[in-house]
Amino acid sequence: MMHLNRQFEHIRIKLEVIVSATNNFADENCIGRGGFGNVYKGNLFHSSGESIVALKRLDPRFGQGNPEFWKEIIILSLYKHNNIVSLLGFCDEGNEKILVYEYASKRSLDLYLNDDNLNWIDRLKICIGAAHGLAYLHNPGGTQQRALHRDIKSSNILLNENWNAKISDLGLSKLGPANQQYTFLVSNTVGTFGYCDPLYLETGLLTKESDVYSFGVVLFEVFCGRLCTSNKNQPLTTLVRRYYKEKKINEIIFRNIKDEIKPKSLEVFITVAYQCLKRKLEKRPLMIDVVRVLESALEYQVSCSFSAFSCVSLYLNIFVRKFKYPLFKCISTLACHKYFSAVQSHTNFLSRNQFLEEMEPLWLESPNTSSMMKNNGRPDSSTLKQYGIDIKGEANSYFFKIYSGELTVDAMIQRLAHYKESSDKRKQSIFECVIANLLDQYQFFGKYPKKELKFAADLYGLLIKNKLLTSTTLGVALRDVLDALRKPSNSKIYDFGIKALEKFLDRLVEWPPYCQHILKIRHLRDTHLELVAVIQKELDKIPSDQLE
Ligand SMILES: Nc1ncnc2c1ncn2[C@@H]1O[C@H](COP(=O)(O)OP(=O)(O)OP(=O)(O)O)[C@@H](O)[C@H]1O
Fold first, then answer.
1. Atom of ligand 1 nearest to the CA of 110
2. Whole-complex ipTM
3. What is the pLDDT of residue 323?
4. Catalytic residue at 151?
5. Alpha-carbon torsion 503, 508, 514, 520, what sign?
Protein backbone atom coordinates (compact mmCIF):
# COMPACT_ATOMS: atom_id res chain seq x y z
CA MET A 1 0.00 0.00 0.00
CA MET A 2 2.99 2.29 0.60
CA HIS A 3 3.63 2.74 -3.11
CA LEU A 4 -0.08 3.40 -3.78
CA ASN A 5 -0.05 6.04 -1.09
CA ARG A 6 2.93 7.63 -2.81
CA GLN A 7 1.47 7.30 -6.31
CA PHE A 8 -1.74 9.08 -5.33
CA GLU A 9 -0.20 11.56 -2.90
CA HIS A 10 -1.35 14.46 -5.11
CA ILE A 11 -5.01 13.73 -4.41
CA ARG A 12 -4.68 12.95 -0.72
CA ILE A 13 -6.87 15.07 1.51
CA LYS A 14 -6.23 15.59 5.21
CA LEU A 15 -8.75 14.16 7.65
CA GLU A 16 -9.11 17.51 9.40
CA VAL A 17 -10.22 19.07 6.09
CA ILE A 18 -12.80 16.32 5.63
CA VAL A 19 -14.03 16.59 9.21
CA SER A 20 -14.60 20.29 8.71
CA ALA A 21 -16.23 19.71 5.28
CA THR A 22 -18.79 17.31 6.72
CA ASN A 23 -19.29 19.07 10.03
CA ASN A 24 -17.68 16.09 11.71
CA PHE A 25 -19.78 13.60 9.71
CA ALA A 26 -22.98 15.19 10.96
CA ASP A 27 -26.22 13.29 10.39
CA GLU A 28 -27.62 16.26 8.44
CA ASN A 29 -24.77 15.82 5.97
CA CYS A 30 -25.46 12.13 5.42
CA ILE A 31 -27.17 11.71 2.03
CA GLY A 32 -27.15 7.97 1.57
CA ARG A 33 -25.82 4.63 2.56
CA GLY A 34 -24.43 1.95 0.27
CA GLY A 35 -22.28 -1.12 0.32
CA PHE A 36 -19.22 0.91 1.27
CA GLY A 37 -20.75 2.82 4.16
CA ASN A 38 -22.36 6.21 4.62
CA VAL A 39 -22.26 8.88 1.93
CA TYR A 40 -21.97 12.52 3.05
CA LYS A 41 -22.38 15.82 1.33
CA GLY A 42 -19.62 18.26 2.24
CA ASN A 43 -18.24 21.67 1.52
CA LEU A 44 -14.55 21.19 0.86
CA PHE A 45 -12.16 24.13 1.10
CA HIS A 46 -9.03 23.95 -1.04
CA SER A 47 -6.38 26.22 -2.52
CA SER A 48 -8.61 27.41 -5.38
CA GLY A 49 -11.79 27.95 -3.42
CA GLU A 50 -14.47 25.62 -2.16
CA SER A 51 -16.45 22.81 -3.77
CA ILE A 52 -19.44 20.78 -2.84
CA VAL A 53 -18.41 17.14 -2.82
CA ALA A 54 -19.76 13.71 -1.96
CA LEU A 55 -17.74 11.65 0.52
CA LYS A 56 -17.94 7.91 1.04
CA ARG A 57 -16.70 6.81 4.44
CA LEU A 58 -15.58 3.21 4.55
CA ASP A 59 -17.32 1.23 7.22
CA PRO A 60 -15.54 -2.15 7.51
CA ARG A 61 -18.71 -3.64 9.00
CA PHE A 62 -20.21 -3.45 5.51
CA GLY A 63 -17.71 -6.02 4.30
CA GLN A 64 -15.42 -3.90 2.16
CA GLY A 65 -11.91 -2.85 2.98
CA ASN A 66 -8.50 -1.82 1.76
CA PRO A 67 -8.51 -3.62 -1.62
CA GLU A 68 -11.85 -2.16 -2.69
CA PHE A 69 -10.81 1.27 -1.49
CA TRP A 70 -7.64 1.25 -3.61
CA LYS A 71 -9.34 -0.42 -6.53
CA GLU A 72 -11.83 2.44 -6.71
CA ILE A 73 -8.97 4.98 -6.62
CA ILE A 74 -6.98 3.16 -9.31
CA ILE A 75 -9.93 2.59 -11.64
CA LEU A 76 -11.26 6.11 -11.35
CA SER A 77 -7.84 7.56 -12.03
CA LEU A 78 -7.57 5.44 -15.17
CA TYR A 79 -11.03 5.96 -16.61
CA LYS A 80 -12.04 9.56 -17.06
CA HIS A 81 -15.16 10.47 -18.95
CA ASN A 82 -17.97 12.99 -18.80
CA ASN A 83 -20.35 10.18 -17.92
CA ILE A 84 -18.25 8.62 -15.21
CA VAL A 85 -18.21 10.17 -11.77
CA SER A 86 -14.88 11.86 -10.98
CA LEU A 87 -12.84 11.01 -7.95
CA LEU A 88 -11.46 14.23 -6.48
CA GLY A 89 -9.41 12.78 -3.69
CA PHE A 90 -9.14 10.38 -0.81
CA CYS A 91 -8.22 10.26 2.84
CA ASP A 92 -6.36 7.34 4.42
CA GLU A 93 -5.55 8.40 7.94
CA GLY A 94 -5.73 6.41 11.16
CA ASN A 95 -8.76 4.16 10.90
CA GLU A 96 -10.46 6.36 8.35
CA LYS A 97 -10.71 5.55 4.66
CA ILE A 98 -12.74 8.11 2.75
CA LEU A 99 -13.31 8.65 -0.96
CA VAL A 100 -14.15 12.13 -2.21
CA TYR A 101 -16.18 12.48 -5.41
CA GLU A 102 -17.71 15.22 -7.48
CA TYR A 103 -21.16 15.89 -6.07
CA ALA A 104 -24.12 14.90 -8.22
CA SER A 105 -26.74 17.35 -7.03
CA LYS A 106 -29.69 15.28 -8.21
CA ARG A 107 -28.24 12.15 -6.59
CA SER A 108 -29.15 8.84 -8.20
CA LEU A 109 -31.55 7.69 -10.90
CA ASP A 110 -33.45 5.27 -8.64
CA LEU A 111 -34.89 8.32 -6.87
CA TYR A 112 -36.59 9.56 -10.06
CA LEU A 113 -37.92 6.46 -11.77
CA ASN A 114 -41.51 7.24 -10.88
CA ASP A 115 -41.11 10.99 -10.82
CA ASP A 116 -44.00 12.55 -12.73
CA ASN A 117 -41.85 15.47 -13.78
CA LEU A 118 -39.25 13.40 -15.58
CA ASN A 119 -40.49 13.33 -19.16
CA TRP A 120 -39.56 10.91 -21.91
CA ILE A 121 -36.94 13.16 -23.49
CA ASP A 122 -35.18 13.64 -20.14
CA ARG A 123 -35.38 9.92 -19.50
CA LEU A 124 -33.83 9.21 -22.89
CA LYS A 125 -31.05 11.72 -22.27
CA ILE A 126 -30.21 10.08 -18.96
CA CYS A 127 -30.09 6.65 -20.61
CA ILE A 128 -27.90 8.00 -23.40
CA GLY A 129 -25.47 9.56 -20.90
CA ALA A 130 -25.18 6.38 -18.88
CA ALA A 131 -24.80 4.31 -22.07
CA HIS A 132 -21.96 6.59 -23.18
CA GLY A 133 -20.19 6.01 -19.87
CA LEU A 134 -20.53 2.27 -20.13
CA ALA A 135 -19.55 2.20 -23.80
CA TYR A 136 -16.38 4.07 -22.85
CA LEU A 137 -15.56 1.56 -20.11
CA HIS A 138 -15.98 -1.27 -22.58
CA ASN A 139 -13.82 0.41 -25.13
CA PRO A 140 -11.71 3.15 -23.58
CA GLY A 141 -9.22 3.43 -26.44
CA GLY A 142 -5.51 3.91 -26.13
CA THR A 143 -3.70 1.26 -24.20
CA GLN A 144 -6.18 1.02 -21.39
CA GLN A 145 -7.81 -2.29 -20.73
CA ARG A 146 -11.51 -2.70 -21.05
CA ALA A 147 -13.26 -2.49 -17.74
CA LEU A 148 -16.42 -4.16 -16.65
CA HIS A 149 -18.77 -2.61 -14.23
CA ARG A 150 -19.55 -5.04 -11.48
CA ASP A 151 -22.82 -3.53 -10.57
CA ILE A 152 -24.92 -1.61 -13.09
CA LYS A 153 -28.12 -0.46 -11.41
CA SER A 154 -30.11 2.72 -11.20
CA SER A 155 -28.69 3.69 -7.80
CA ASN A 156 -25.24 3.65 -9.41
CA ILE A 157 -26.27 6.15 -12.06
CA LEU A 158 -25.82 9.63 -10.61
CA LEU A 159 -27.36 12.78 -12.01
CA ASN A 160 -25.92 16.26 -11.96
CA GLU A 161 -27.74 19.57 -12.10
CA ASN A 162 -28.38 19.23 -15.85
CA TRP A 163 -29.51 15.62 -15.56
CA ASN A 164 -26.26 14.47 -17.07
CA ALA A 165 -25.81 10.84 -16.04
CA LYS A 166 -22.60 9.66 -14.40
CA ILE A 167 -21.78 6.08 -13.64
CA SER A 168 -20.45 5.48 -10.15
CA ASP A 169 -19.09 2.67 -8.00
CA LEU A 170 -16.65 1.19 -10.47
CA GLY A 171 -14.36 -0.48 -8.07
CA LEU A 172 -16.11 -0.77 -4.76
CA SER A 173 -16.32 -4.53 -4.73
CA LYS A 174 -14.07 -7.50 -4.17
CA LEU A 175 -11.43 -8.32 -6.77
CA GLY A 176 -12.68 -10.91 -9.16
CA PRO A 177 -11.31 -13.30 -11.73
CA ALA A 178 -10.18 -12.34 -15.18
CA ASN A 179 -11.16 -14.56 -18.08
CA GLN A 180 -9.30 -15.20 -21.31
CA GLN A 181 -11.30 -12.74 -23.36
CA TYR A 182 -10.89 -9.64 -21.27
CA THR A 183 -8.58 -8.52 -18.55
CA PHE A 184 -10.60 -6.69 -16.03
CA LEU A 185 -11.38 -6.07 -12.44
CA VAL A 186 -14.72 -7.43 -11.45
CA SER A 187 -16.56 -8.52 -8.40
CA ASN A 188 -17.07 -12.07 -7.29
CA THR A 189 -20.02 -10.85 -5.28
CA VAL A 190 -22.05 -9.49 -8.20
CA GLY A 191 -25.66 -10.22 -8.25
CA THR A 192 -27.64 -7.39 -7.07
CA PHE A 193 -31.02 -9.00 -7.21
CA GLY A 194 -32.96 -8.20 -10.39
CA TYR A 195 -30.07 -6.77 -12.44
CA CYS A 196 -27.84 -9.80 -12.64
CA ASP A 197 -27.16 -11.61 -15.90
CA PRO A 198 -28.76 -15.07 -15.52
CA LEU A 199 -25.91 -16.57 -17.51
CA TYR A 200 -23.46 -15.32 -14.94
CA LEU A 201 -25.44 -17.02 -12.21
CA GLU A 202 -25.24 -20.29 -14.17
CA THR A 203 -21.64 -20.17 -15.33
CA GLY A 204 -19.91 -17.76 -12.95
CA LEU A 205 -18.41 -16.08 -16.01
CA LEU A 206 -18.72 -12.35 -16.05
CA THR A 207 -18.42 -10.63 -19.43
CA LYS A 208 -19.10 -7.20 -20.79
CA GLU A 209 -22.39 -8.64 -22.05
CA SER A 210 -23.34 -9.05 -18.38
CA ASP A 211 -23.10 -5.28 -18.08
CA VAL A 212 -25.26 -4.96 -21.19
CA TYR A 213 -27.87 -7.20 -19.58
CA SER A 214 -27.94 -5.11 -16.38
CA PHE A 215 -28.14 -1.95 -18.45
CA GLY A 216 -31.17 -3.41 -20.27
CA VAL A 217 -32.84 -3.84 -16.88
CA VAL A 218 -32.14 -0.18 -16.09
CA LEU A 219 -33.64 0.83 -19.45
CA PHE A 220 -36.85 -0.97 -18.56
CA GLU A 221 -36.87 0.62 -15.11
CA VAL A 222 -36.76 4.01 -16.78
CA PHE A 223 -39.48 2.98 -19.21
CA CYS A 224 -41.79 1.42 -16.63
CA GLY A 225 -41.09 3.95 -13.87
CA ARG A 226 -40.28 1.40 -11.20
CA LEU A 227 -37.30 -0.34 -9.65
CA CYS A 228 -36.69 -3.86 -10.85
CA THR A 229 -36.68 -4.93 -7.24
CA SER A 230 -39.81 -3.10 -6.12
CA ASN A 231 -42.05 -6.16 -6.43
CA LYS A 232 -40.27 -9.33 -5.39
CA ASN A 233 -43.18 -11.49 -6.55
CA GLN A 234 -43.03 -10.07 -10.00
CA PRO A 235 -39.47 -9.24 -11.12
CA LEU A 236 -39.43 -6.55 -13.77
CA THR A 237 -37.69 -8.75 -16.34
CA THR A 238 -40.38 -11.45 -16.06
CA LEU A 239 -43.06 -8.83 -16.54
CA VAL A 240 -41.28 -7.27 -19.51
CA ARG A 241 -40.76 -10.61 -21.26
CA ARG A 242 -44.40 -11.53 -20.88
CA TYR A 243 -45.78 -8.19 -22.13
CA TYR A 244 -43.24 -8.02 -24.94
CA LYS A 245 -44.15 -11.44 -26.26
CA GLU A 246 -47.85 -10.68 -26.01
CA LYS A 247 -47.23 -7.40 -27.84
CA LYS A 248 -48.73 -5.46 -24.98
CA ILE A 249 -45.67 -3.46 -23.93
CA ASN A 250 -47.76 -0.26 -24.03
CA GLU A 251 -49.53 -1.46 -20.93
CA ILE A 252 -46.46 -1.26 -18.75
CA ILE A 253 -45.18 2.19 -19.79
CA PHE A 254 -44.91 4.56 -16.85
CA ARG A 255 -48.26 6.36 -16.68
CA ASN A 256 -46.92 9.88 -17.06
CA ILE A 257 -44.97 9.33 -20.22
CA LYS A 258 -47.46 7.09 -21.98
CA ASP A 259 -49.14 9.83 -23.96
CA GLU A 260 -46.00 11.62 -25.05
CA ILE A 261 -43.92 8.76 -26.45
CA LYS A 262 -43.87 8.77 -30.23
CA PRO A 263 -44.43 5.28 -31.68
CA LYS A 264 -41.13 5.19 -33.56
CA SER A 265 -39.19 6.33 -30.49
CA LEU A 266 -40.93 3.66 -28.42
CA GLU A 267 -40.23 0.99 -31.01
CA VAL A 268 -36.48 1.57 -31.28
CA PHE A 269 -36.09 1.97 -27.52
CA ILE A 270 -37.94 -1.21 -26.70
CA THR A 271 -36.16 -3.18 -29.42
CA VAL A 272 -32.71 -2.35 -28.14
CA ALA A 273 -33.65 -2.64 -24.46
CA TYR A 274 -35.11 -6.07 -25.12
CA GLN A 275 -32.02 -7.16 -27.05
CA CYS A 276 -29.93 -6.33 -23.99
CA LEU A 277 -31.92 -8.94 -22.06
CA LYS A 278 -31.34 -11.74 -24.58
CA ARG A 279 -30.20 -14.95 -23.02
CA LYS A 280 -27.44 -15.59 -25.53
CA LEU A 281 -24.47 -13.30 -25.11
CA GLU A 282 -23.90 -12.95 -28.84
CA LYS A 283 -27.43 -11.65 -29.36
CA ARG A 284 -26.92 -8.78 -26.96
CA PRO A 285 -25.83 -5.52 -28.59
CA LEU A 286 -22.52 -3.76 -27.99
CA MET A 287 -22.81 -0.70 -25.76
CA ILE A 288 -21.70 1.50 -28.64
CA ASP A 289 -24.74 0.28 -30.60
CA VAL A 290 -26.99 0.85 -27.62
CA VAL A 291 -25.79 4.47 -27.58
CA ARG A 292 -26.51 4.89 -31.28
CA VAL A 293 -30.00 3.39 -31.07
CA LEU A 294 -30.93 5.40 -27.96
CA GLU A 295 -29.83 8.55 -29.74
CA SER A 296 -32.05 7.68 -32.65
CA ALA A 297 -34.95 7.09 -30.21
CA LEU A 298 -34.34 10.63 -28.98
CA GLU A 299 -34.22 12.01 -32.49
CA TYR A 300 -37.48 10.25 -33.36
CA GLN A 301 -39.05 11.70 -30.26
CA VAL A 302 -38.05 15.26 -31.01
CA SER A 303 -38.16 15.30 -34.76
CA CYS A 304 -40.40 12.73 -36.31
CA SER A 305 -43.44 14.87 -36.40
CA PHE A 306 -41.68 17.57 -38.42
CA SER A 307 -41.13 17.48 -42.10
CA ALA A 308 -37.76 18.91 -43.09
CA PHE A 309 -39.52 22.07 -44.09
CA SER A 310 -41.54 22.59 -40.94
CA CYS A 311 -38.53 21.76 -38.82
CA VAL A 312 -36.46 24.44 -40.50
CA SER A 313 -39.19 27.01 -40.38
CA LEU A 314 -40.01 26.27 -36.77
CA TYR A 315 -36.46 26.80 -35.62
CA LEU A 316 -35.89 29.78 -37.80
CA ASN A 317 -39.07 31.33 -36.53
CA ILE A 318 -38.28 30.77 -32.91
CA PHE A 319 -34.64 31.64 -32.86
CA VAL A 320 -33.91 33.81 -35.82
CA ARG A 321 -36.98 35.91 -36.46
CA LYS A 322 -38.01 36.26 -32.89
CA PHE A 323 -34.81 36.61 -30.88
CA LYS A 324 -32.39 37.63 -33.62
CA TYR A 325 -29.21 36.70 -31.88
CA PRO A 326 -26.55 35.17 -34.04
CA LEU A 327 -25.26 32.41 -31.81
CA PHE A 328 -28.75 31.10 -31.54
CA LYS A 329 -29.01 31.30 -35.27
CA CYS A 330 -25.97 29.06 -35.43
CA ILE A 331 -27.38 26.79 -32.80
CA SER A 332 -30.70 26.64 -34.50
CA THR A 333 -28.94 25.80 -37.73
CA LEU A 334 -27.07 23.09 -35.92
CA ALA A 335 -30.25 21.80 -34.39
CA CYS A 336 -31.73 21.76 -37.85
CA HIS A 337 -28.80 19.61 -39.04
CA LYS A 338 -29.51 17.13 -36.31
CA TYR A 339 -33.21 17.04 -36.83
CA PHE A 340 -32.74 17.01 -40.52
CA SER A 341 -30.60 13.88 -40.43
CA ALA A 342 -33.42 12.07 -38.66
CA VAL A 343 -36.01 13.41 -41.04
CA GLN A 344 -33.85 12.73 -44.05
CA SER A 345 -33.96 9.02 -43.42
CA HIS A 346 -37.70 9.22 -44.09
CA THR A 347 -37.86 11.67 -46.96
CA ASN A 348 -35.77 12.69 -49.89
CA PHE A 349 -36.94 16.19 -49.49
CA LEU A 350 -33.60 17.97 -49.62
CA SER A 351 -30.07 16.63 -49.79
CA ARG A 352 -27.85 17.36 -46.83
CA ASN A 353 -25.57 19.56 -48.93
CA GLN A 354 -28.46 21.51 -50.36
CA PHE A 355 -29.65 22.02 -46.85
CA LEU A 356 -26.26 23.23 -45.61
CA GLU A 357 -25.98 25.58 -48.58
CA GLU A 358 -29.33 27.08 -47.78
CA MET A 359 -28.32 27.55 -44.19
CA GLU A 360 -24.89 29.01 -44.93
CA PRO A 361 -25.99 32.67 -45.05
CA LEU A 362 -27.43 32.30 -41.58
CA TRP A 363 -24.14 31.20 -40.15
CA LEU A 364 -22.37 34.09 -41.66
CA GLU A 365 -24.59 37.08 -41.46
CA SER A 366 -24.85 39.17 -38.34
CA PRO A 367 -26.48 42.43 -39.33
CA ASN A 368 -25.90 44.30 -36.10
CA THR A 369 -22.15 44.00 -35.84
CA SER A 370 -19.39 45.89 -37.57
CA SER A 371 -15.75 45.19 -38.28
CA MET A 372 -13.34 44.11 -35.59
CA MET A 373 -11.55 47.48 -35.52
CA LYS A 374 -14.74 49.47 -35.26
CA ASN A 375 -15.81 47.12 -32.57
CA ASN A 376 -13.11 48.05 -30.09
CA GLY A 377 -11.17 44.83 -30.43
CA ARG A 378 -14.24 42.66 -30.06
CA PRO A 379 -14.26 39.77 -32.52
CA ASP A 380 -17.42 39.91 -34.57
CA SER A 381 -19.14 38.32 -37.49
CA SER A 382 -16.40 39.36 -39.90
CA THR A 383 -13.87 37.60 -37.66
CA LEU A 384 -16.15 34.62 -37.57
CA LYS A 385 -16.36 34.58 -41.35
CA GLN A 386 -12.74 33.57 -41.67
CA TYR A 387 -13.49 30.14 -40.22
CA GLY A 388 -14.77 27.34 -42.40
CA ILE A 389 -18.20 25.89 -41.87
CA ASP A 390 -16.78 22.79 -40.20
CA ILE A 391 -14.80 24.87 -37.67
CA LYS A 392 -17.83 27.01 -36.94
CA GLY A 393 -19.99 23.93 -36.76
CA GLU A 394 -17.74 22.31 -34.20
CA ALA A 395 -17.29 25.52 -32.21
CA ASN A 396 -21.04 26.02 -32.08
CA SER A 397 -21.71 22.41 -31.26
CA TYR A 398 -20.02 23.03 -27.89
CA PHE A 399 -22.48 25.79 -27.08
CA PHE A 400 -25.26 23.53 -28.22
CA LYS A 401 -24.00 20.76 -25.96
CA ILE A 402 -23.67 23.09 -22.99
CA TYR A 403 -27.15 24.49 -23.44
CA SER A 404 -28.63 21.04 -23.85
CA GLY A 405 -26.82 19.76 -20.75
CA GLU A 406 -24.59 17.30 -22.62
CA LEU A 407 -21.40 19.14 -21.63
CA THR A 408 -20.60 20.95 -18.41
CA VAL A 409 -19.01 24.38 -18.46
CA ASP A 410 -16.03 22.95 -16.56
CA ALA A 411 -15.55 20.24 -19.17
CA MET A 412 -15.79 22.86 -21.90
CA ILE A 413 -13.15 24.99 -20.18
CA GLN A 414 -10.84 22.00 -19.89
CA ARG A 415 -11.30 21.27 -23.55
CA LEU A 416 -10.66 24.87 -24.51
CA ALA A 417 -7.47 24.91 -22.44
CA HIS A 418 -6.32 21.84 -24.31
CA TYR A 419 -7.28 23.32 -27.71
CA LYS A 420 -5.53 26.58 -26.96
CA GLU A 421 -2.23 24.84 -26.26
CA SER A 422 -2.61 22.32 -29.04
CA SER A 423 -0.17 22.28 -31.95
CA ASP A 424 -3.06 21.19 -34.16
CA LYS A 425 -4.11 24.24 -36.20
CA ARG A 426 -7.70 23.05 -36.45
CA LYS A 427 -8.05 22.86 -32.69
CA GLN A 428 -6.55 26.32 -32.33
CA SER A 429 -9.06 27.66 -34.83
CA ILE A 430 -11.92 26.03 -32.98
CA PHE A 431 -10.67 27.63 -29.77
CA GLU A 432 -10.49 31.08 -31.37
CA CYS A 433 -13.88 30.63 -32.98
CA VAL A 434 -15.51 29.70 -29.65
CA ILE A 435 -14.04 32.79 -27.98
CA ALA A 436 -14.95 35.06 -30.87
CA ASN A 437 -18.49 33.71 -30.86
CA LEU A 438 -18.95 34.13 -27.14
CA LEU A 439 -17.62 37.68 -27.00
CA ASP A 440 -19.66 38.60 -30.05
CA GLN A 441 -22.74 37.59 -28.11
CA TYR A 442 -22.42 40.11 -25.29
CA GLN A 443 -24.64 42.62 -27.07
CA PHE A 444 -27.41 40.01 -27.17
CA PHE A 445 -27.18 38.76 -23.60
CA GLY A 446 -30.15 40.88 -22.60
CA LYS A 447 -32.27 38.62 -24.78
CA TYR A 448 -30.82 35.35 -23.59
CA PRO A 449 -32.99 33.02 -21.53
CA LYS A 450 -31.91 32.78 -17.89
CA LYS A 451 -30.28 29.36 -18.07
CA GLU A 452 -28.25 30.13 -21.17
CA LEU A 453 -27.15 33.45 -19.68
CA LYS A 454 -25.89 31.67 -16.58
CA PHE A 455 -23.78 29.36 -18.77
CA ALA A 456 -22.44 32.37 -20.66
CA ALA A 457 -21.52 34.06 -17.35
CA ASP A 458 -19.74 30.93 -16.12
CA LEU A 459 -17.85 30.70 -19.39
CA TYR A 460 -16.79 34.35 -19.27
CA GLY A 461 -15.72 34.06 -15.64
CA LEU A 462 -13.83 30.81 -16.04
CA LEU A 463 -12.09 31.88 -19.24
CA ILE A 464 -10.75 34.88 -17.33
CA LYS A 465 -9.94 32.87 -14.22
CA ASN A 466 -8.07 30.21 -16.16
CA LYS A 467 -6.07 32.73 -18.21
CA LEU A 468 -7.41 31.45 -21.48
CA LEU A 469 -7.83 34.85 -23.11
CA THR A 470 -5.25 36.89 -24.98
CA SER A 471 -4.61 40.47 -23.90
CA THR A 472 -7.12 41.81 -26.46
CA THR A 473 -9.91 39.37 -25.72
CA LEU A 474 -9.21 39.59 -21.98
CA GLY A 475 -9.68 43.36 -22.20
CA VAL A 476 -12.99 42.89 -23.99
CA ALA A 477 -14.22 40.31 -21.51
CA LEU A 478 -13.28 42.41 -18.47
CA ARG A 479 -14.92 45.46 -20.02
CA ASP A 480 -18.11 43.48 -20.66
CA VAL A 481 -18.26 42.34 -17.04
CA LEU A 482 -17.73 45.90 -15.81
CA ASP A 483 -20.33 47.19 -18.23
CA ALA A 484 -22.80 44.54 -17.03
CA LEU A 485 -22.20 45.47 -13.39
CA ARG A 486 -23.03 49.08 -14.18
CA LYS A 487 -26.45 48.07 -15.48
CA PRO A 488 -29.49 48.34 -13.15
CA SER A 489 -29.28 45.81 -10.37
CA ASN A 490 -32.60 44.22 -11.29
CA SER A 491 -31.55 43.51 -14.87
CA LYS A 492 -30.54 40.16 -16.32
CA ILE A 493 -27.32 41.58 -17.60
CA TYR A 494 -26.35 42.72 -14.08
CA ASP A 495 -26.82 39.13 -12.90
CA PHE A 496 -24.56 38.06 -15.72
CA GLY A 497 -21.89 40.49 -14.48
CA ILE A 498 -22.14 39.24 -10.89
CA LYS A 499 -21.96 35.57 -11.84
CA ALA A 500 -19.00 36.11 -14.13
CA LEU A 501 -17.17 38.26 -11.57
CA GLU A 502 -17.62 35.68 -8.82
CA LYS A 503 -15.62 33.22 -10.90
CA PHE A 504 -12.46 35.27 -11.19
CA LEU A 505 -12.27 37.10 -7.86
CA ASP A 506 -8.86 35.63 -7.15
CA ARG A 507 -7.39 37.36 -10.21
CA LEU A 508 -8.63 40.82 -9.31
CA VAL A 509 -5.46 41.60 -7.41
CA GLU A 510 -3.72 41.76 -10.80
CA TRP A 511 -5.84 44.72 -11.92
CA PRO A 512 -6.08 47.38 -9.19
CA PRO A 513 -7.66 50.08 -11.42
CA TYR A 514 -10.29 47.57 -12.49
CA CYS A 515 -11.13 46.89 -8.85
CA GLN A 516 -11.41 50.60 -8.25
CA HIS A 517 -13.88 50.95 -11.11
CA ILE A 518 -15.96 48.13 -9.71
CA LEU A 519 -15.96 49.64 -6.24
CA LYS A 520 -17.32 52.87 -7.66
CA ILE A 521 -20.54 51.09 -8.67
CA ARG A 522 -22.89 52.17 -5.90
CA HIS A 523 -25.66 49.64 -6.34
CA LEU A 524 -23.15 46.80 -5.97
CA ARG A 525 -22.94 47.70 -2.27
CA ASP A 526 -26.68 47.38 -1.92
CA THR A 527 -26.92 43.98 -3.54
CA HIS A 528 -23.55 42.29 -2.95
CA LEU A 529 -21.82 43.81 0.02
CA GLU A 530 -19.81 40.63 0.55
CA LEU A 531 -18.34 40.93 -2.96
CA VAL A 532 -17.41 44.52 -2.31
CA ALA A 533 -15.65 43.39 0.88
CA VAL A 534 -13.69 40.73 -0.99
CA ILE A 535 -12.61 43.18 -3.67
CA GLN A 536 -11.65 45.77 -1.06
CA LYS A 537 -9.60 43.10 0.68
CA GLU A 538 -7.80 42.31 -2.57
CA LEU A 539 -7.10 46.00 -3.08
CA ASP A 540 -5.75 46.35 0.44
CA LYS A 541 -3.07 43.82 -0.42
CA ILE A 542 -1.64 46.20 -3.02
CA PRO A 543 0.91 48.81 -1.87
CA SER A 544 -0.61 52.29 -2.18
CA ASP A 545 2.12 53.53 -4.58
CA GLN A 546 0.92 50.98 -7.12
CA LEU A 547 -2.61 52.31 -7.04
CA GLU A 548 -3.72 55.07 -9.37
N1 LIG B 1 -21.19 11.48 -5.90
C2 LIG B 1 -22.41 11.50 -5.36
N3 LIG B 1 -23.16 12.61 -5.40
C4 LIG B 1 -24.40 12.64 -4.85
N5 LIG B 1 -24.98 11.59 -4.26
C6 LIG B 1 -24.30 10.44 -4.19
C7 LIG B 1 -22.98 10.33 -4.72
N8 LIG B 1 -22.55 9.07 -4.52
C9 LIG B 1 -23.55 8.43 -3.89
N10 LIG B 1 -24.61 9.24 -3.68
C11 LIG B 1 -25.89 8.93 -3.03
O12 LIG B 1 -25.65 8.01 -1.98
C13 LIG B 1 -26.38 6.79 -2.19
C14 LIG B 1 -25.51 5.61 -1.75
O15 LIG B 1 -24.45 5.50 -2.67
P16 LIG B 1 -23.51 4.23 -2.78
O17 LIG B 1 -22.81 4.29 -4.08
O18 LIG B 1 -22.65 4.13 -1.58
O19 LIG B 1 -24.50 3.01 -2.67
P20 LIG B 1 -25.47 2.29 -3.66
O21 LIG B 1 -25.03 2.49 -5.06
O22 LIG B 1 -26.87 2.71 -3.35
O23 LIG B 1 -25.30 0.80 -3.20
P24 LIG B 1 -24.03 -0.19 -3.39
O25 LIG B 1 -22.88 0.40 -2.66
O26 LIG B 1 -24.52 -1.43 -2.78
O27 LIG B 1 -23.77 -0.29 -4.84
C28 LIG B 1 -26.67 6.76 -3.70
O29 LIG B 1 -27.81 6.03 -3.99
C30 LIG B 1 -26.82 8.23 -4.02
O31 LIG B 1 -28.17 8.64 -3.83
1. 29
2. 0.97
3. 43
4. yes
5. positive
